[in-house]
Amino acid sequence: MFGISLSSSPIRTIFSFIRQPISMTVNALFLALAIYGIFWFCLLSPTDFDTTLAQLIEIKPNTPEYRRFFTDLYSSCLSFGAFIVLAGKVVRFICGIFSPKGDEQGDGQGRLSGRASVIRRKMTPQDIQYVGAHEAGHLLVYAALGQLPSSMKVKVKEHTDNTTSLGYVSAFTSKRVTQSRLFIEWQMLASLAGREGESILLQDNSLGSIYDNHEWFELARLYLKNHFKGIFYIEPLSEFEFNANEAKLNALKEKQTQLLQEFFSLNLSVYKQLTSMLIEKKILYGHEIIPFFQQADITFPQGFPFPFGRFEKFSDEWHLEEEYGKVGTVVDKKY
């Protein structure tokens, strides 16, 4: 997934924190004033004017009854105004929890958590080129699966939105409780493939790989904690153990980066064609991607993982419905 980062200064964060209670207080005061006006408008209406005037005459100024009358009136208006403001906040919060989230919040590598406010801006041709190369890089690694659901989707957006994602690959959701070593190895390569594809095709990199790097790091730690590459300290306590873990992480990333560089070099013409097709159409679906993989002459370097097993020809059928569901199924993870 290609994402943009939203940087914020400490001053802006503090201001945002203070602004909320100030805004709520001002809204409550305006509502209290409106309720106060409505109260007197009703009491001084032509039908109730004489009754209200007689009651007010009975209340002498500067007496406890006089002060209690207006104190109760002011506090009631303010309390009611504050209640309306808080009720509105609660309703918006509940609606935010149950509002549907699009599949662009998750991609071939995972789900983007949280929301951020992004000004809607049109992508420039160079923006689309970078995002297209990035997402096509992710997508090309899916060729190692040998099969894909026709419902999968790859998208390059033409405008920014509130997801912070500018493009994504959304293929399937895992139903499995456990996961295999080969699948995790493939998944780590898929996480890194967007950036490595950019490097080879554009000789440059965007700054849209933050989430990919975060996911790779989490997957790598899980992978190494199972000691597939030797000793990795589950809970490092000393500087030696921290340094040893860091060395293992760096070595794993370097090895996988080299494997991806070889993969893209062997399939550069296919990668260029896939990137051009994605940039032109902006959205590719499974029924377009599967024939492309079937017709393309894709070569895999030695040591490349095949999580669903080796294959002679890319299949036009999806045989893993029991293991992996369609995107949109309520599960914890998207790939």
From TrEMBL:
Gene Ontology molecular function, alphabetical: ATP binding; ATP-dependent peptidase activity; metalloendopeptidase activity
SUPFAM superfamilies given in the database record: FtsH protease domain-like
Presence of keyword Membrane: yes
InterPro entries xrefs: Peptidase_M41-like
Keyword Ribonucleoprotein belongs to the record: no
Keywords recorded for this protein, A-Z: Membrane, Transmembrane, Transmembrane helix
GO biological process: proteolysis
Transmembrane regions: 21-41, 73-91
Name listed for the protein in its UniProt record: Peptidase M41 domain-containing protein
Species this chain originates from: Rodentibacter trehalosifermentans
Top-level taxonomy: Bacteria, Pseudomonadati, Pseudomonadota, Gammaproteobacteria, Pasteurellales
